[in-house]
């Protein structure tokens, strides 16, 4: 998929204020408030900003962290991982590789019984779910 590049004004027109805050300003929705936290629907999760397929329901798991969690993206090049040193800690930020929107963070080695031992902790507001 081609890169999606828009001005801040164009993103503000396309996205709701909350979507803009999270996707374009690297905000975070409050835990346990997102629409996909407890969703069990089979389908594909895509970037709310540009529609790029990011995760499949088969990789979603219960992490009890307050945000939807996945153990891997649909393709390794669907997301970009960036070191994040905000808030006085070092984390790995997850961004959409197509439009550079903030999705959440990925954590490794937390002991979850998943094939990758990764937890992609993603804001619901960053995603849209297309049921199978």
TrEMBL record:
SUPFAM superfamilies, alphabetized: Mss4-like
Record-annotated MsrB domain positions: 8-132
Pfam families (UniProt xref): SelR
UniProt key word Metal-binding: yes
Catalytic activity: L-methionyl-[protein] + [thioredoxin]-disulfide + H2O = L-methionyl-(R)-S-oxide-[protein] + [thioredoxin]-dithiol
Cofactor field: Zn(2+)
Entry GO MF terms: metal ion binding; peptide-methionine (R)-S-oxide reductase activity
PROSITE patterns xref list: MSRB
Keywords, comma-separated and alphabetical: Metal-binding, Oxidoreductase, Zinc
Top-level EC class: oxidoreductase
GO biological process: protein repair; response to oxidative stress
Assigned EC number: 1.8.4.12
GO cellular component, one term: cytoplasm
Family annotation (PANTHER family): METHIONINE SULFOXIDE REDUCTASE, METHIONINE-R-SULFOXIDE REDUCTASE B1
Protein name (database record): peptide-methionine (R)-S-oxide reductase
Organism name: Acrocarpospora pleiomorpha
Species classification: Bacteria, Bacillati, Actinomycetota, Actinomycetes, Streptosporangiales
């Amino acid at each position: 998929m081609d890169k999606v590049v828009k001005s801040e004004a164009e993103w503000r027109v396309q996205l709701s204020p909350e979507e803009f805050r999270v996707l374009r300003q690297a905000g975070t929705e409050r835990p346990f408030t997102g629409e996909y936290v407890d969703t069990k629907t089979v389908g594909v999760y895509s970037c709310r900003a540009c529609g790029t397929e990011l995760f499949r329901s088969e990789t979603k798991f219960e992490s009890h962290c307050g945000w939807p969690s996945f153990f891997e993206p649909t393709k390794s090049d669907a997301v970009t991982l960036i070191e994040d040193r905000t808030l006085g800690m070092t984390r790995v930020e997850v961004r959409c590789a197509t439009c550079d929107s903030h999705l959440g963070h990925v954590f490794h080695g937390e002991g979850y019984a998943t094939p990758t031992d990764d937890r992609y902790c993603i804001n619901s507001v960053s995603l849209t779910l297309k049921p199978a």
